[in-house]
């Protein structure tokens, strides 16, 4: 016969399972097989749950760190040009920004993957190409003129 708790085969005259110590109930091998099948189902459900969890974690990580063309999160912060102690741009995560020579709160966003669009309080906008953001160095290009800015000072 088999132990009702752990399913191990035990001698027919046992009072307790020698393996787990459970008092013996007389169980047919059929119900032991059922118990094993149930355990198998639990394992499958567990594996699926772990898989779903891993996918969710990847989705969250991707949304935090973004894809290659997602510049917006990298742009949030203060950017300084090489020869100026005051920040040239301050980009806020709510889409507003401060720009050195423009008064008041301006708006910023990234359009067409790599175009930094700055809009002033009068609705005038200008667009620069984001050439790269590497090691906290932002390279902006206007036509054939490129400028570098450094995040939070050099
Ligand atoms: Zn047992």
From TrEMBL:
User: Where does the source fall among the domains of life?
Assistant: Bacteria
User: InterPro entries, per this entry?
Assistant: Zinc_ribbon_dom (IPR026870)
Q: Can you tell me where the transmembrane regions are?
A: 44-65
Q: Which UniProt keywords apply?
A: Membrane, Transmembrane, Transmembrane helix
Please report the stretch or stretches of sequence annotated as the Zinc-ribbon domain: 2-24
What is this protein called in UniProt? Zinc ribbon domain-containing protein
Top-down, what is the taxonomic lineage of the species of origin? Bacteria, Bacillati, Bacillota, Clostridia, Lachnospirales
């Amino acid at each position: 016969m088999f132990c009702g708790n752990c399913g191990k085969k035990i001698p027919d005259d046992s009072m307790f399972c020698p393996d787990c110590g459970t008092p013996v109930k007389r169980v047919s091998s059929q119900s032991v097989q059922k118990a094993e099948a149930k355990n198998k189902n639990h394992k499958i459900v567990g594996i699926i749950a772990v898989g779903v969890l891993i996918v969710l974690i990847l989705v969250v990580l991707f949304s935090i760190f973004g894809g290659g063309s997602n510049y917006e999160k990298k742009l949030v912060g203060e950017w300084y040009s090489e020869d100026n102690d005051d920040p040239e741009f301050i980009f806020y995560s709510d889409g507003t920004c401060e720009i050195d020579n423009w008064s008041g709160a301006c708006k910023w966003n990234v359009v067409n993957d790599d175009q930094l669009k700055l809009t002033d309080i009068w609705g005038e906008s200008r667009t620069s190409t984001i050439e790269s953001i590497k090691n906290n160095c932002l390279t902006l290009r206007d036509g054939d003129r490129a400028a570098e800015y450094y995040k939070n000072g050099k």
